[in-house]
């Protein structure tokens, strides 16, 4: 009996101890499980979009690029972003064109290619840096690391894309990109241009184009060329290699003018190339004769989302031979009335300081003594020496001519649906 009582005395503490141990083990197990689950969740949280996308809403990266936040409200007055480029001996022409085009509301990239002497490039850089208006507003940039540009090869396209990338990186609020050379000159004031374009949809692209290649099919599309400007520091002409190639079947070729007004949305597409078409065509056109006259046309007309935005005009007055040669006629005073009648915003090609430029300054732009083209923004004791209100516009007769031209172009596009044909 004594031993039995002794065993009963130990039963109760033993049961209690067992229960406590089981409780502690269960608690430890649960804590470990919670910790493990937390760790697993932490690991998967590194890849939330990929895991969730695969489980709930499969999509392609191209679709995700398009699903961006709506852009902020734009000002009623658009902004233009210019590239003005030149080569050896073009310093003074480029500087005059820049002064004539300048408006504090816009942005400007200037470039003298690698063929230009270092002295010319340094002088241009010094003028941009020391000009008091440019320094205060800060909207004129120079490509200091010059590119080699061979005008019949792809290096001109590369230089244009370089300028586009600079403008996209530096500024987020421009609406249209315009590429010009030092041999171009405006036929309307910037106030005329801004006033006319303020009523247009900001996604419109003014780019001359046609799919009827004609003689260019055999002379430009089918030969294979190499542009030494891609790998040499001295300029030399392109050279032909064999064999010739057939026309592509993966995309349709278009040709037109190397000068254009492109919307910011299309420029972004060319730089980002989220469906790879711009890169594929850039590689194709690296062996194409006069690729600046076909690259942007072929990109925009093979991208369905941009076809409806194309207006078949380059906003230039250019006088060509028939069939066209590599370069257009050089314009003179004899062409003044034709330039005005055209209603175009720009004209080319001009010699430096030709009397016709003085006539354009006097008759069309109201520009005097090598100053800036006057506009509503001008202030100061000297004409346009200070910036007043940059959004104040004073359009003149040039705006009416340009508006009539664009009206005819839009009507023709609406009636005939001639975009990318």
From TrEMBL:
<dbReference type="InterPro" id="IPR003406">
    <property type="entry name" value="Glyco_trans_14"/>
</dbReference>
<dbReference type="InterPro" id="IPR044610">
    <property type="entry name" value="GLCAT14A/B/C"/>
</dbReference>
<dbReference type="Pfam" id="PF02485">
    <property type="entry name" value="Branch"/>
</dbReference>
<keyword id="KW-0808">Transferase</keyword>
<keyword id="KW-0325">Glycoprotein</keyword>
<keyword id="KW-0472">Membrane</keyword>
<dbReference type="GO" id="GO:0016020">
    <property type="term" value="C:membrane"/>
</dbReference>
<protein>
    <submittedName>
        <fullName>Uncharacterized protein</fullName>
    </submittedName>
</protein>
<dbReference type="GO" id="GO:0016757">
    <property type="term" value="F:glycosyltransferase activity"/>
</dbReference>
<keyword id="KW-0328">Glycosyltransferase</keyword>
């Amino acid at each position: 009996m004594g031993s039995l009582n002794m065993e009963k005395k130990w039963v109760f503490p033993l049961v209690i101890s067992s229960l406590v141990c089981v409780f502690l083990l269960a608690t430890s197990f649960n804590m470990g499980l919670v910790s493990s689950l937390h760790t697993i969740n932490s690991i998967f949280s590194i890849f939330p979009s990929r895991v969730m996308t695969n489980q709930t809403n499969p999509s392609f990266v191209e679709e995700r690029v398009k699903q961006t936040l709506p852009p902020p409200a734009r000002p009623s007055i658009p902004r233009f972003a210019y590239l003005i480029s030149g080569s050896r001996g073009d310093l003074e022409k480029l500087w005059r064109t820049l002064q004539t085009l300048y408006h504090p509301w816009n942005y400007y990239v200037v470039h003298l290619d690698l063929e230009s002497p270092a002295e010319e490039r340094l002088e241009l850089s010094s003028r941009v840096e020391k000009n008091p208006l440019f320094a205060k507003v800060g909207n004129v940039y120079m490509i200091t690391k010059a590119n080699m540009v061979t005008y019949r090869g792809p290096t001109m396209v590369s230089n244009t894309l370089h300028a586009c990338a600079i403008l996209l990186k530096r500024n987020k609020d421009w609406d249209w990109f315009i590429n010009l050379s030092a041999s171009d000159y405006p036929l309307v004031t910037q106030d005329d241009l801004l006033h006319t374009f303020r009523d247009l949809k900001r996604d419109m692209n003014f780019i001359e184009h046609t799919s009827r290649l004609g003689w260019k099919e055999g002379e430009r599309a089918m030969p294979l060329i190499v542009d030494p400007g891609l790998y040499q520091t001295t300029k030399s002409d392109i050279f032909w290699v064999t064999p010739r190639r057939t026309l592509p079947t993966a995309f349709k070729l278009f040709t037109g003018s190397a000068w254009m007004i492109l919307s910011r949305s299309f420029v972004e597409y060319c730089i980002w190339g989220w469906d790879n078409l711009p890169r594929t065509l850039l590689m194709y056109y690296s062996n194409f004769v006069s690729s600046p006259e076909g690259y942007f046309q072929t990109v925009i007309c093979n991208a369905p989302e941009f076809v409806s935005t194309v207006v078949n005009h380059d906003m230039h007055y250019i006088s060509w031979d028939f069939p066209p040669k590599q370069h257009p006629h050089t314009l003179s005073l004899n062409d003044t009335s034709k330039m005005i009648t055209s209603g175009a915003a720009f004209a080319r090609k001009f010699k430096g300081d030709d009397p016709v430029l003085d006539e354009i300054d006097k008759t069309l732009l109201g520009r005097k003594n090598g100053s800036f083209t006057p506009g509503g923004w001008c202030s100061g004791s000297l004409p346009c020496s200070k910036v007043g209100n940059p959004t104040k516009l004073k359009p003149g007769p040039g705006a009416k001519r340009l508006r009539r031209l664009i009206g005819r172009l839009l009507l023709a596009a609406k009636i005939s649906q001639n975009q990318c044909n």
